[in-house]
Amino acid sequence: MSFSGKYQLESQEGFVPFMKAIGLPDDLIEKGKDIKSVSEIEQNGDSFKVTVTTGSKVMVNSFIIGQESEVETLTGEKIKTVVTKEGNKLKVKLSHIESVTELLDANTLVHTMTLGDIVFKRTSKRVS
């Protein structure tokens, strides 16, 4: 199953505690908690380009499965990491954050980020 497509955020759990834990300022947390972000994924074999648009903020990360890549984190920090793929899951460690993006079915994308015991889960539905 290909990850390629455009997905709109349907629901999220744990947004505020997770954003506080990674050090995002309260005003940005307040602004961001109700924005329905759109994730666009372009997959070509093991090569991925992920564009996440949240309001006026656009974050673009490109990577190749199993190769070190520089990616931008939610706080804007750029770090070098390796994305792995296990079945329908993309896994990556961003500093202290464990990130898993899973394609549940052809139309449902679940992105879970874990920092210690704080879990931030986003469920998005395919729009194209």
Can you give a write-up of this model?
This protein has helices at residues 15-21, 26-32, and strands at 5-13, 38-44, 47-54, 57-64, 68-72, 78-82, 84-86, 89-94, 97-105, 108-115, 118-126. The chain is mainly β and 128 residues long. The chain has one domain (5-126): Calycin beta-barrel core domain (Lipocalin). It is globular and about 40 Å long. The model has no long low-confidence stretch (mean pLDDT 94).
Largest sheet: 9 strands, antiparallel
CATH topology: Lipocalin
Number of helices: 2
β-strand amount? over 45%
CATH architecture: Beta Barrel
Uncertain segments are none
Mean pLDDT: 94
Structural class computed from helices and strand pairing: mainly beta
CATH class: Mainly Beta
Q: How far is the N terminus from the C terminus?
A: 15 Å
What order do the strands of the largest sheet run in, or round the barrel if closed?
A: 4-3-2-1-11-10-9-8-7
Give the overall shape, derived from the CA principal axes.
globular
Order of helices and strands: EHHEEEEEEEEEE
Number of individual domains:
1
CATH superfamily: Calycin beta-barrel core domain
Radius of gyration: 14 Å
- Portion of residues in helices? 10-25%
DSSP, total strands: 11
Function: Binds free fatty acids and their coenzyme A derivatives, bilirubin, and some other small molecules in the cytoplasm. Involved in intracellular lipid transport.
Pfam family, one: Lipocalin_7
Family: Belongs to the calycin superfamily. Fatty-acid binding protein (FABP) family.
InterPro entries: Calycin (IPR012674), Fatty_acid-bd (IPR000463), ILBP (IPR031259)
